[in-house]
């Protein structure tokens, strides 16, 4: 599942929990959103590292 979908799902859960007074659901929604943001950050970091590696290989070739 994509991070955008996970973030949206987390937001819906969080809002539903808030509206119904279900603290657990609200917390799960926040956790889902945080997990999606972490995956997004890790993906970005991997892409940057790959770019640096490619740049270094080109300089030494």
The secondary-structure element order is HH
Measured as a percent range, the helix fraction is over 70%
- How many angstroms does the end-to-end distance come to? 38 Å
Q: What general form does the structure show?
A: rod-shaped
SS elements, strand count: 0
Strand content: under 5%
Rg over C-alpha atoms, rounded to the nearest angstrom: 18 Å
Judged by helices, strands and strand pairing, the structural class is mainly alpha
**Could you tell me the mean pLDDT?**
91
Largest sheet: none
- Helix tally? 2
**Weakly predicted, low-confidence segments:** none
Question: Could you explain how this protein is built, in words?
Answer:
The model has no long low-confidence stretch (mean pLDDT 91). It is built from 2 helices and no strands. It has helices spanning 3-20, 23-60. The protein is mainly α.
Give a topology summary.
Elements: H1 3-20, H2 23-60
List keywords for this structure.
single chain; mainly alpha; 61 residues
Provide a brief overview of the structure.
Helices cover 92% and strands 0% of the residues. The longest helix is centred in the last third of the chain and has 38 residues. The model has no long low-confidence stretch (mean pLDDT 91).
């Amino acid at each position: 599942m994509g991070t955008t979908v996970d973030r949206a799902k987390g937001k819906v859960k969080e809002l539903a929990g808030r509206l119904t007074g279900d603290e657990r659901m609200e917390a799960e929604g926040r956790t889902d959103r945080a997990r999606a943001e972490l995956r997004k950050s890790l993906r970005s970091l991997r892409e940057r590292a790959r770019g640096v590696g490619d740049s270094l290989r080109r300089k030494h070739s």
